[in-house]
Amino acid sequence: MTYNSAPRSVGRTEVQWTAVDPFAPDEARVLAQQVEISPAVRRAYVAAHIVSDETAEQQIRQLLERILQTGRIARSPSGWRARSHKADSPDDGSPESSYAFILDSACRRVVAYLGPAVSWFDQETHIPTEDLLHQLDERRRMEAEAQRLKARRQEEQAQRQAAHEERMRVERAEAEARRVAALPVPTWPLFDADQAYDWDGRAVPLPHPRRPVTDEESIRRAGRRPDVLFHADALNSPFFRDVPLEERPQALRAVVDSLLRAPTKGRVTIGPASITVNGLKVTFTLTPDCAVVRTLNPPKPGNNEPARYRADRWKLPRPKKSE
């Protein structure tokens, strides 16, 4: 390996290099002929390859012209780095066996040279520049074709995925429509849909979501508070089909209170979107913040006879006597 005696800043300053395309043949020829070769680079080349100053000048320009066309070119704010193609390396093509120049773009000067001990001009065989350019063009063409094929496959995959998702959406919509069509048509009085009601059956706005309740003991307390609301979906359940509208909020309150008050009657399951309580052939859901009883034994497809509310089975605790 041979280095020149370039200024300290060239070898030690951290430089950010960005790969760029090689030069066109005419541009490479003009730059190689017009660029100034620093005395330090010339002396290092002469000492490494035992040639005269005139030969060093000629070989540097000739090698630089070839590398600018066929090599690996990188750009920095201060200039270019030109490293030879692996076909021009005398050994295994590793970076340590490459010929490389650093050019200062401001003064158009070769300020550094790096290369193996064997001169490029002492190698037995060289691929002609035209043939090497043809190989590079062919490789770039194949890489571009591979990129086009990859992009086309990705686009086709994206189209297939979009079509699959659309089919699944349509199938889900159709399945939901079939499920809704199969539900029994309510023949009992109903509360207004998408509305919340308090314990006395008064319509109230749905509350804004609050912090979720995440432990069972707190859920059993919070779900029985007087400010808990009942959604129309729960009040309109087939379970209450024999209960008059004016009595239904108190009936639902009795069911919720009974299952939450006694762990042996109601089992609590905490999910990410709702809290489920089930027991005694009843399943109802609470919002995560325990503010609203959302559903209770929702209608199911088929001709199965749903459970019915019986007041004698659901009793509210007697109020404590005040002293």
Describe the structure in your own words.
The structure is a single chain. It is built from eight helices and 14 strands. Strand 8 and strand 9 (203-204) form a beta hairpin. The strands form two sheets. Strands 1, 2, 3, 4, 5, 6 and 7 form a seven-stranded mixed sheet that branches. 38% of the residues lie in helices and 17% in strands. By secondary structure, the chain is of the alpha+beta class. The chain has helices spanning 8-12, 25-34, 39-49, 53-70, 129-182, 216-222, 232-235, 248-261; strands spanning 2-3, 18-20, 36-37, 72-76, 79-83, 100-104, 109-115, 196-197, 203-204, 229-231, 267-270, 275-279, 282-286, 292-296. The chain is rod-shaped and about 115 Å long.
Descriptors:
7-stranded mixed beta sheet; disordered N terminus; 8 helices; alpha+beta
Measured distance between first and last alpha carbons: 102 Å
Number of strands: 14
Low-confidence stretches: 1-12
Order of helices and strands: EHEHEHHEEEEHEEHEHHEEEE
Summary?
By secondary structure, the chain is α+β, with helices and mostly antiparallel strands. It has helices at 8-12, 25-34, 39-49, 53-70, 129-182, 216-222, 232-235, 248-261; strands at residues 2-3, 18-20, 36-37, 72-76, 79-83, 100-104, 109-115, 196-197, 203-204, 229-231, 267-270, 275-279, 282-286, 292-296. The strands form two sheets. Strands 1, 2, 3, 4, 5, 6 and 7 form a seven-stranded mixed β-sheet that branches.
